[in-house]
Specification:
By secondary structure, this protein is an alpha+beta fold. The chain contains two helices and two strands; from the N terminus they run αββα. The radius of gyration is 17 Å and the shape is elongated.
Length: 75
């Protein structure tokens, strides 16, 4: 992969990260991320353990859709 193509992909990824960060910052995304039904949260005296299983599945599905759309637009 040439440096120019790699640079473009890094810029696209960075722009997506900035957009998602702005959505979180301005409160446009719900604060439920990480607290969906199916996520495991153990709270005991002295420690907390969080295993966001469903959140990871949701993020994976969204990223799969977005990346598939990007690759199809590239063709």
């Amino acid at each position: 992969m040439s440096g120019a193509i790699m640079g473009k992909w890094i810029m696209v990824f960075g722009a997506m990260m900035i957009a998602v960060g702005a959505l979180f910052y301005f409160g446009l995304l719900p604060g439920k991320l990480g607290h969906l039904p199916g996520d495991i949260n153990l709270r005991r005296e002295g420690y907390n353990v969080s295993v966001p299983i469903v959140t990871c599945v949701v993020i994976s599905i969204i990223l799969t859709i977005v990346l598939n759309l990007l690759f199809r637009m590239k063709r």
